[in-house]
């Protein structure tokens, strides 16, 4: 493993502590602790990375190798596993479904979330605090509580088992956090800019789209990354709302594939499917890891 | 000065409110109402039965069993994840001591951070399926490793044995969550002035002392947030368990959310399932409020 060594921070010049005779015992103890803790860091790194790498390596194996030699390397690079997973196991279809839903749901979430947050953050009107708390209060409820009525309501408007239905519902369930986060963000933007735009004859709508929205870009990116992952990885809502096989999204399709492949014994296809589902997110993550980590942790710090 | 703010307010607030009200607020509200009926999803007829569902629920041993599993998760998941997360974050951010009392991260800390955080990117279903295969009794990574080092006797049917399934699922939850808290705690540690750590190092404080006496008090706010989040995850757990075990074997990994799902979509007892949901809501709410109360401390200012 090649380690990226971060340059040591510039620290204040400190005079080295004088050697005290009584300290050698502790120093020795710190030395062993040092080795121990490095070993532990490495151990946890392996515990995290090895299962992921194992899935990728196993996706090139055939069923016999998978079942009888879990730690071995594949005898050949069987790319046909991926082709079978993509077509026969419908991973390709699930990919397309997930992408379609994501494009719609993310656009909708960002548009509705940003407009609502802007109205709540920049305008005083009767009941504005109430509306804010109604939105944010949605974060207190466990989503499973909504399962039964949601199933009924969505069926009532004919959106059960439909991808546009999923778009709307993902967006609806993303609004509490998005509004919460963006309201806080819009409040930090200086008033003077909006006033200046107004004096220059900019209408309220133009002010929002041309002036305020571009200024809110860092906040939009943070909450956008958060929602992207939330929608791409969504499992709960499709499990309740999507019933037919060809409408399933990736997370859901993969879970049902795991169950059916368990019976059929076609493990190579399952591992190939798992790799196909895993790799794009992991590749995007390694490229943008700084932004992703910052976005997600900032999102959680309320 | 803002003329015509009402067109904007209407255009900006009504569509999100309509969507949110229809698909989020109204289901939550209705579930409280449905909880007082004997509605059996498939028929359109139902009667109000008052609190009957709740009375039945208190005598339902399956619900108690599921709730107990949630409570175990509630104790173990935050505790283990936070301890592990704090330890790893300390090592990564202030673990290195380049002689001369300088306190830095260890070598390669950024690569560790990337790896630890990676599971956070994956959906519950990928994590669940991946670990189902790791635990697979025949071709699984875990039993394979045990057999490779000659510990054949320790190889188990991890997810198929009521003795181990719960612990196997708990391990996956920790695995999937730790990285997030390593990064979260790491970010908080970066905002602690270096001098404090350097002073501690110069005074000869060991790493353990530094962690317990300096890092934990200074990071208390962040730890509190972490605790609440992990508590909420522990009280839910539905998605991962739905993928991995469906509550089995013999209900050893059943959780309240899964109980609700099974009653609602397995047996179509919609009234009863909603009552379980209502109980779950109040349990989650009280645990959140309680843990915020119990962990409240004087905030330490360090800037």
From TrEMBL, chain A:
GO terms for cellular component: plasma membrane. The keyword Cell membrane applies. It comes from the Bacteria. Gene3D superfamilies: MetI-like (1.10.3720.10). Keywords: Cell membrane, Membrane, Transmembrane, Transmembrane helix, Transport. The chain crosses the membrane at residues 35-57, 94-118, 130-151, 163-186, 207-230, 270-288. It is found in: Cell membrane. GO terms for biological process: transmembrane transport. Pfam families: BPD_transp_1. InterPro entries: MetI-like (IPR000515), MetI-like_sf (IPR035906). It is a multi-pass membrane protein. Residues 95-288 form the ABC transmembrane type-1 domain. CDD domains: TM_PBP2. Belongs to the binding-protein-dependent transport system permease family. This is Sugar ABC transporter permease.
From TrEMBL, chain B:
Its main location: membrane. Belongs to the binding-protein-dependent transport system permease family. It is a multi-pass membrane protein. One of its GO terms (cellular component) is plasma membrane. This is Sugar ABC transporter permease. The keyword Membrane applies. It comes from Catellatospora bangladeshensis. Residues 67-291 form the ABC transmembrane type-1 domain. The chain crosses the membrane at residues 71-94, 114-132, 164-184, 226-245, 270-292. It comes from the Bacteria. Gene3D superfamilies: MetI-like (1.10.3720.10). It is found in: Cell membrane.
